[in-house]
Specification:
This protein has 503 residues and is an alpha+beta fold. 29% of the residues lie in helices and 25% in strands. The longest helix has 21 residues, at 482-502.
């Protein structure tokens, strides 16, 4: 659609207003809730809507009075026409396109009236890639964008889009090379383009470790060693889960015994639901707790629903389990992990807390998307849900152990792999791991991710084919490289995982 005389003034005035607001508003920080919400919404819009051609994403995220302004294809003045143009255009291309946000370029400016948030302006840059059969993925163009988001009935809706400054980069400047992950120089060039300081890759094939590599630098001029220590955020939870399951396996703990017999939090002491809470509920995220109690208005722990009623991700649940375990066994979680996991598997660089044994010179410090360093929080107390310190070689040992049966009885091991609760179609939670089904070749994937300020990590286990794969990054934009990396290592099964995770 071409520009027309009646629509162009609207485009010009709205764009100028948006730019003025950007210059006047206080920018939202990358670690703020608003920034994270809009980044996630952008990812859903592009990954699910454009990249997967799942047009239902646009219905959920796009406002009814939507307008789209493009510097080459003109104006699309309705939500209906926009969805039609994607369906009949992008989704019909002879190759598979992929759009990716340059996370470091993204800025968010809140819009308020009378101190009340009603919208936000998001700016940044998108990269456009093409996937052709029997060819490595390559970059086709780069463009700037400005999005106007409005908060309506508690939901963020995309109202206006300006896509401009489309340009073709220099040949091969940011394209994904066929040598990616095979050639260190090519890989680190790609990392620099994506603003990834350090990247840990681990791959297990046929039950054997075939790659354990760390790329990049810990600081300028200081290459990251193979035993770089990463904070892996929520990849802590599968370790805590295995400690509990090891105790169950020895008959010292019971999956379905109420935890109040060993620990009862003061915040819920008078709630009868506290006497229903079990280890099974914790490991499958059915406690009824919020992720963290500080997210509740009064900052106190409470039940949102009866334990076992449904899925709701909760780090608080894992901390509740830790306190119960420590109360009964008179040992810290770290001591229990040493006995049942770390020492038997020779995970010598893995611990729950900072202590005098850690080699800080090997630690991958946390970075914002623009490269700015965050302050390192050196936790002195174990958190069962977060902040595990480990290396690629150590965590690979843990994953191989899981593939080999985790040292559990056949019955208990199968229980760990059994769907305990449904999250969404083809996605479930077992005991300590989420489970993606219908990914292809009769395979299912055990998966867990970790996301904190300056940390993005993810791990997969494929029990049937005896594969395992992990990605460790030390930056806010680490998730930007997940898809090409997963596809490079796991191929069609990786695409199956992506389809389950993004739909």
């Amino acid at each position: 659609m071409n520009y027309n005389s009646t629509a162009f003034p609207s485009f010009r005035n709205v764009l100028l207003a948006a730019c003025l607001l950007c210059s006047m508003a206080l920018q939202a920080q990358p670690n703020s809730e608003l920034f994270r919400i809009l980044k996630a919404s952008d990812s859903l819009l592009f990954e699910v809507g454009f990249n997967q051609c799942n047009l239902s994403a646009f219905d959920q995220l796009v406002n009814d009075d939507f307008e789209f302004y493009h510097d080459q294809s003109g104006i699309t003045s309705s939500k209906k026409d926009f969805i039609s143009s994607v369906r009949d255009g992008v989704c019909q291309l002879p190759y598979k396109p992929r759009r990716q946000l340059d996370a470091a370029s993204m800025q968010v400016f809140p819009l308020e009236k009378g101190g009340v948030l009603y919208g936000a302006v998001q700016t940044g840059e998108h990269r456009f890639y093409a996937n052709e059969k029997d060819k490595p993925e390559y970059l086709t163009s780069v463009a700037r964008f400005t999005h106007l988001w409005l908060l309506q009935n508690g939901r963020w809706k995309l109202s206006r889009v300006f896509s401009y400054d489309h340009r073709t980069p220099a040949a091969g400047s940011t394209s994904i090379s066929a040598d990616l992950f095979k050639n260190r120089a090519e890989t680190e060039k790609w990392m620099a383009q994506n603003r990834i300081p350090a990247l840990g890759i681990g791959y297990v094939k046929d039950g054997k470790i075939v790659q354990s590599t760390v790329y990049g630098n810990l600081e300028p001029g200081k290459p990251a060693p193979e035993n770089t220590i990463f904070n892996v955020a929520s990849l802590t939870k599968p370790v805590t889960a295995l400690v509990a399951l090891k105790l169950v396996n020895e008959g010292k703990w019971n999956l379905d015994e109420p935890l109040f017999r060993y620990w009862l939090d003061a915040d819920i002491a008078n709630d009868p639901r506290a006497k229903k809470l079990t280890t099974r509920h914790v490991l499958s995220h059915q406690t009824g707790f919020a992720n963290w109690r500080h997210m509740n208005p009064d900052g106190k722990l409470k039940f949102d629903f009866d334990p076992g009623a449904r899925y709701q991700y909760s780090g608080e649940g894992f901390e509740y389990l830790r306190k119960a375990l420590e109360k009964k066994f008179k040992k810290t979680l770290g001591e229990l992990a040493d006995i049942y996991v770390f020492k038997p598997l020779q995970m010598m660089d893995t611990r729950f807390t900072w202590d005098d044994k850690i080699d800080e010179s090997r630690f991958a410090k946390w970075h914002a998307g623009d490269g700015t360093l965050y302050t390192t929080d050196k936790n002195k107390f174990a958190n069962a849900a977060d902040d595990l310190l480990t290396t690629v070689p150590d965590y690979l040992k843990f994953m191989v152990h899981i593939l080999e049966g985790a040292g559990l009885s056949a019955k208990l091991y199968q229980e760990m792999l059994t769907n305990q609760v449904t999250i969404k179609p083809h996605k479930f939670f077992g005991l300590g791991w989420s489970i993606d089904e219908n990914i292809g070749d009769g395979e299912r994937a055990l998966m867990h991710g970790g996301d904190d300020k300056g940390v993005h990590t993810i791990a997969f286990l494929l029990p049937k084919s005896k594969q395992a794969f992990l990605i460790f990054t030390n930056c806010d934009n680490g998730t930007d490289i997940y898809i090409p990396t997963i596809l490079a290592y796991l191929g069609s099964l990786g695409q199956g995982i992506i389809d389950v995770e993004t739909k």
